[in-house]
Each structure stands twice: as C-alpha cells, then as structure tokens.
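User: I'm new to structure prediction. If I give you an amino acid sequence, what do you actually give back? Let's try with this one:
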Amino acid sequence: MASREKIRNIAIVAHIDHGKTTMLDAMLKQANIFRENQVTAERMMDSYDQERERGITIFAKHTSIPYLDYQVNIIDTPGHADFSAEVERILGMVSSVLLLVDAQEGPMPQTRFVLSKSLKMGLKPIVVVNKIDRPFADPDRALDLTFDLFSELGATDEQLDFSYCYASGLSGFACKHIDDPRVDMRPLFDLIIEKVDAPPGDINEPFLMQALTLFYDDYVGRQACGRILNGKVSKGQTIGHVNKDGKMVRAQISKIEGHRGLEKIELQEASCGDIVVLSGMPEVMIGDTLCDVQKPITLPPIKLDEPTVSIDLAVNSSPFAGRSGKHVTMNKLRERLEREKKANISLKIDLEGAEYLTVQGRGELHLSVLIEAMRREGYETSLSKPKVIFKEVDGVTQEPIERVNIEVPEAYSGSIIEEMSKRKGEMQSLETSAEGITRMEYLLPTRGLMGYRNDFLTKTRGLGILTSRFDHYGEFRGAIQGRLAGVMIASSSGKATGYAEFQLQERGSLFVGPGEDVYEGMVVGEHARDNDLDVNICKEKQLTNVRASGMDENIILTPPRKFTLEQAIDYIQDDELVEVTPAVIRMRKKYLTQADRKKFSR
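Assistant: Good question. You get back a string of structure tokens that encode the predicted 3D arrangement of the chain. For your 602 residues, that looks like this:
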C-alpha cells in the first residue's frame, strides 16, 4: 500500500442519473488495471443484481486506482434519495468529494442533499460538470447554478472557491477548460492529486478505526470496512472491539483486504489513511470502534436522518402459501430481518410483533429493495400498505414533507398542477424553457406522493421526470384522496378463463391472464367505478347439444396489467395486502371470503 502522503480518498456524489458510475467506468478503464483481453461490463461498480436491473446504484462501493505513484481510493455512492444513508456514513472515510453536475440539467434535488452533508463535514468538493458533449448542454449555466447552491447552503469562503473541470464519462475525457483538447481522464486525475489533501492521521499513534460499512464472507464471517484513522494494523494482531455501549472485547485480525480496481487484495499490514476491510470481529456493527487493546476509545456514533415510511411484513396467509417459497414461517422472517438489522442501520426494524414485523425506511423504493432481495432468497411474505411516520411536536401532529421536482412537456403541465393541488402540494417555483419543458418545484406531503408515480408516468405518456427528497417535518395537511377506482375480486377459486375475462374486461382492466390460478378474495382487476366488485373469473361457457365448443366465436383479450413490487405496494389500499413469493406477486383483500369482508366492513 502507498504511504499516507501518496493516498487520496474521495467519494463521487451526484443526483440520480448524472453519470457517477459511468464516470468511474472511464477512470477504471484508463488506469490500466485490466488485461488487454479482459472483458469489462458497463457500470462495472453496479455488481448487485437489482442495481443492474433497475439502472441505479443502491449500495456504496469501494475501489482503488493507481495513478503515477499515487493511490486514489474512490467510493461510488447512490444517487437516489431513498439510499442517502449510504452517502451519509461513507463521507467520514474521505477527504473530498467529486460533485458531478449534469451540464444540461444543472444541480438537482439530490445534488443539494449530498452537497449539504459534505459542506457540513468541512469537505471541500471538486465540481465536475459532466455530459458536456450532449445536445443542449449548457456547462456555464450549470456551473453558475452550482455556485449559487454552494452559497445557498452556507458554504465557507474556502468552500466557495471550489475547483472544477468539465468531462464526459461516456466519452471518457476530462478537461480543465471548456476549449481544451478532449483526450482522456488525466486532467481529472491531476485535479484530484493537486486539490485533495492526504488523509489525516499519525502512524505512530495507537491503532484506531471506525466500522462504516459491513460485508459478510462465507469463510471468515462478518467484515468491517473503514478508513484507518491512526496507527497501523497487522494480520494476526489482537485489537479491541468497542461497541456502541462502550463495552470492549478482544478480537484477533484474521484477514486484511484492500481494493485494487474491482478486486479485493489481501494485505499483511495496513496503516493510517488506508481504506481496508478487516475480518475477525464476529459481532461488529456499523459505528463500532476498533482500537488498540491498551488504549480503548469509543468514537461518536454515526447519526443518520430518521426514516419517514413504514411497512408491515407478515407470513403469507393466502391459500397458495408455500407453492414457490421455502421460507414461509414467522421464525424464518424474524431471523432474516434480524440479520438485516445488524448490517443495515438505515432501516429501523421492529421484531417484537407476534402477527407482523415492522420495517421503517426512507421511502417505498428503500423498503422494496429489501423485500425484493428476500423474495429472491425464497421468502414468502404479506405486505401492508406503506404508512408515513407521524410525529407529535408540542401537541401538534407533524408529517414528512418532500421537496418534489417535476419536468414535463408544457402540454401536460396543467393536469400535473391540478393533481399536485389535490395532493396538498405547495408550489415553490415554475418556469418553462425555450425547448417547451416546464419545470416545477413543490413541497408535498409524503402521503401525497405515495402511489402517484405510476399515474404521473401514465398522464405524461412516459415523458415526465419526477424526483423527490425528504425536506422537513411540517404540520399535518389534512386528508388526501386515495385511489379513486375500486377493484374486481375473485369470488371463487380455480383457473381464470378466457370466456370470463372477455365478459369482464368491459368492466375495467384485468391483472391476470387466462389459465392463471386465482383464489377467493384475490384482486384480479381494477373496476372502472369507485366500488369493489366480486366477479367469477373462473366461469366457463356452458355447452349444449345445439352449441358445440367448435362453434365459439373468436375472442380478443386485452393483455393483463402486471405489477412490479413497488407498483403493487403503491396501488393497494388499507384493506388490501400484497402477497410476495419467489414466483409471483399478487394482491388480495385482507379478509378473503365475502362473509368476512362484510363482517369487518361494518
């Protein structure tokens, strides 16, 4: 590993889709760490299956790039507001951040969040105006808006005097000035070496490190990742592991790993400034202190923003329970969430419930990533409708308020403004560009945003962009109208038939296709009116000796509407559940039989 003076620790932060992971791809490829014939994928750092499928970064990732005789440690961070806890805790590892800003869009809501956290920690960001080769790019405007944002967030004079460069991660170049030759990423690497300070610390002091990220290895168990703050550590060394309560236990380091490109490399020793992964502490938690046995220290705990949304998980109690999952009991659910609780401090998990377990997070996407991971591991669950977390402040009920940014073609702006008003939105700004794009900013209760994203995409025909981030807790804004349409509910169990679906599709849109298994109480479609409707979707055409099956007319069915996990939990109402299994996602009423539904609706 390099000496402390030759180390540069940085994080790449930006709004979602502003090009962090693509920029890192270009830096890795130009660092000559791959063989000439080595095949590399796009978005190399997005190694988690859901990240590749969704096209977003979910977990912070570590890499190390050699440049000249320096070692540049880089952390790729999520851009989505729901995963902002990943950003909050890794900022303690780095000396600076690369703040990427889209040359066309300028600073966006998540840009504000990550920048404010960086400025509060005293970091001096380097601004990278990305995608300067795109049509309609306006890098000077983006840079001016970024300066205004620094000023608005209370940056010091030193922070306002930030360094910057222009780049295109996709094309693989950076330049100090907009008219410079566009060759490679060297100008960005040079800027990092010049402007980022070497990590602080004293190698002669006793060993000290805080666990900021956890990994799990099948052979060595739980692993702690962080930056060594002082001293050095060797393989086989006995250290002190101090938990959040100040209790110290001895632990022996069984393995030390650093990063080089996409690989982890095993080390015999590491010293202050290095970002390493240590094994040998079976009970380590995020925020715990690892220190010299003779001089135990308890570092301050990591403080994260509070969750704003909760969801209840229970065992799958539908008639089809156990068909595709292998973990179907409450004990299995509790064990899985117990493991998640130890590794993921951004989620708050209550395991005390007898009938259901409660998970709290930053948003519906934050919660659905966990549930999707469990589904792929073979778990079956029933999910309630997500609820916002209210607070009582001086006897006044307060609810989470989101800052929502919307971009739509001008033709759709009127309907969006009307909908925002119905959802108790408070307009903050409105402007229409020369290209006919209307940009709006609202303060909107989280309740008003729930279930709206799908409607938004439908109303704007997929041309609108909606982003949001938690802003503050504000006074309760009153009732917000939920889903307007009722649902069609299967009145019997069996297989859906084409004949029945043909008769029902004029009543609304269907969620199941012919031949699919259904059970009584399962939600099989959306009713065109506002009331729920019990339907016999298993009905078959009666044959007589006058009319034979060969005489049937051809029927044309509209393809069924299929839901992703997020869409399903957005869609349901309080008296409905989402049934999640490895094979299929269904929606159903809490009470399956008609008799029970009538009894509990009184």
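You can read the tokens as a compact description of the fold. Here is one thing that stands out. The longest helix spans residues 139-152.
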